[in-house]
Amino acid sequence: KLLALEPRRFEVFVKELLLHCGFRDVCVTKFSADGGVDVNAKAGVRMWIFENTLIQVQAKRWLHSVGRKEVAELRGSLQPFAKGAVVTTSHFSKAAINEAGEEGKNPITLVDGFRLSKVILDEQFILP
Question: What distance in Å separates the CA atoms of residue 55 and residue 27, rounded to the nearest whole number?
């Protein structure tokens, strides 16, 4: 079902999932020229130790792997002190995984299609 969504609708889906999971102040950025950030959110009270932390998400409704370039672009677009995440319906290349956790750089959380599906099921979120 997620792969059938238009890219913009997938961004809205990620927004709705974040709201469902307890994030707040969640908004989708403008569709073009977003600098790689598709959704902004703040950690809610359920994530009390990180409450109010800005999370910036890049949403990729892809069949092919997400590469190093996309991870690096997101990192370069993050606001100061924000945490970044790439959420995809597919998977990540080895280079993307290495880039996300490279020492000395702000880490980027990677959520592949399997993890995304698990979150949807665990949180009992109903697909659009």
Answer: 11
Cα torsion angle, 123, 41, 85, 73, sign = positive
What residues pair up with 86 in beta bridges, in sequence order? 58, 110
pLDDT at 36: 86
- C-alpha span between 118 and 114 (Å, rounded): 6
59-80, pLDDT tens digit by residue? 999 999 999 999 999 999 999 9
Other beta carbons within 10 angstroms of residue 81's beta carbon come to 8
* Contact assessment for residue 36 and residue 74, using Cβ atoms and an 8 Å cutoff: yes
